[in-house]
Amino acid sequence: MIFHDYNVDSITWWRIELKMNILGISAYYHDSAAALVQSGKIMAAAQEERFTRKKHDARFPKNAISYVLTEANLSLRKLDYIVFYEKPLITFERLLETYITYAPKGFRSFVTAMTAWLQEKLYLKTVLKKELAKLANCKTAQLPPLLFTEHHQSHAASAFFPSPFETAAILCLDAVGEWATTSLWLGQGNQMIPQWEIDFPHSLGLLYSAFTYYTGFKVNSGEYKLMGLAPYGEGKYTNLILENLIDIKEDGTFRLNMDYFNYATGLTMTNHKFAKLFGQPPRKPESEITQREMNIAASIQKVTEEIVLKLADTAYRELGTDNLCLAGGVALNCVSNGRLLREGKFKDIWIQPAAGDSGGAIGAALAIWHQYSEKPRYANDSDAMEGAYLGPQFSNEEVQQYLDDVRANYIYLEESELFSKVAEILAKGNVVGWFQGRMEFGPRALGNRSIIGDPRNEKMQSVMNLKIKYRESFRPFAPSVLAEKVDQYFELNKPSPYMLLVAEVKKDLHIPMTAEEKQLFGIEKLNIPRSKIPAVTHVDYSARVQTVHPETNLRYYQLIKQFEALTGCGVLVNTSFNVRGEPIVCTPEDAYRCFMRTEMDYLVINNYLLAKSKQPQWQKDESWKEEFELD
């Protein structure tokens, strides 16, 4: 059967055949996820960690798969294709070649890696089919076709196909896929044409992770901390890095000096020569962070930004398009993205909100729809990620049932009353857990699984960090701002719905520092209010901006509008609804547990408002902390 759909906006007739359902999977490395694409539309996507409550869970995403299929009312056997986000045999080839190149160095690492590969990863197609058959309760022969895309193809597809651009340069920067660590593509219509790549071991993502490791943070999760620490320091080690660790060409391509790194064949990121270069061994996790770590963070951040700017300039020069799409873990460096927007040659930039490996599940599925199945693509003014609100949601009936089961004390409020009441609570300096609608896909909470507060409150940042999030005091919080008011608060003239761009707070909101305050350095800068919205203003007067749009999140938008009507401020503090070492909450149960185990003042789940002071006595069992590695 063939039918037609008339698209009024583009005045285009386009043909749709019977719905094609494609399941994309990323797994077995970090941040496992599943995504369902139905005839080119992203229907649902979620990370496995949200269901298992194990941060960065890398296991087969059985819970995420079950969710996305349930969301579309599908059984696994009714799918047309299942696709995995990379080609494991090519990755195995890379590992073997690397160990041969460096032999006999790295024998211990080789044994460790080969044990894992020979037990499972080398036979990943068989492993996947067995897991899928178990989930579908069928024989492997009854499963839909299982396909594989390349890792950077998945990244590129996740960046370009949901973007609002008909044509764009696509830059992928991460740690490593099969071989590629950096790649450039040209996106046109429903095709992506590879241009060139930089291969392992020369990796910007691994370089940044090496410094994450050296400064005492956990690789693949602590990179945000390194970026947040950078403004407290000075780039005193920049030349040391450029003269010893990396050779950067004028076009942005680069080579690392592998004499200083251990990740190619070892069990650590850096080696003794790296430590000698910087004067001491890596900082021990949880030990004091000194000015030295701050200066190192500032230095590697500066080097990273310079490489990204040069690579983007090369992409612009070679491909001649005004649009740029970004994906890969390095694309989550929102400070670098902000500079690229301000100083780069591209007129517009779009960044995949789940730019890391989890987003590969979406990219792999879209690559099968557009490239493998040769289905057309129709770009429009907005992107196809639906605000990244692609996860589970819960009805008021489900919420009330859970709250009654745990004997929680709550009140139910209609929407108009709810928004005004919560705005009043926020204006009084309270911290609120805000749980609404579909869960976000990707690492950022965007107003549906968020902890929110008043940005005008000078104590809000330290209160949230130390009493709610249980994390380092230096880490900044993001502002959620009404989309139409963004240029009143920040030096930004484009939407930033995914919190992936850093911009300066408007100068008329700055609070000048006194002569004494200017003499302070490092972490001493933390408690100096920098602007009239101090809780979301970093020490360098910057902010990681999220613009809130009524088209994608009406309830959060209405709350901020009500807060603005009450206070004159169209901004809220927004941080993810979780504590340190724990994934963002998924269910009402997760939200209530987090609420009760922190010093949060209020919780809102859908239309239900809960005050901490009114809750029954909670058994404050701290053993939950042992379940998570506090990184």
From TrEMBL:
Pfam families: Carbam_trans_C, Carbam_trans_N. InterPro entries: ATPase_NBD (IPR043129), Carbam_trans_C (IPR031730), Carbam_trans_C_sf (IPR038152), Carbtransf_dom (IPR003696), NodU/CmcH_Carbamoyltrnsfr (IPR051338). Residues 423-612 form the Carbamoyltransferase C-terminal domain. GO terms for molecular function: catalytic activity. Residues 22-366 form the Carbamoyltransferase domain. Signal peptide: none annotated. Belongs to the NodU/CmcH family. This is Carbamoyltransferase. It comes from Crocosphaera subtropica (strain ATCC 51142 / BH68).
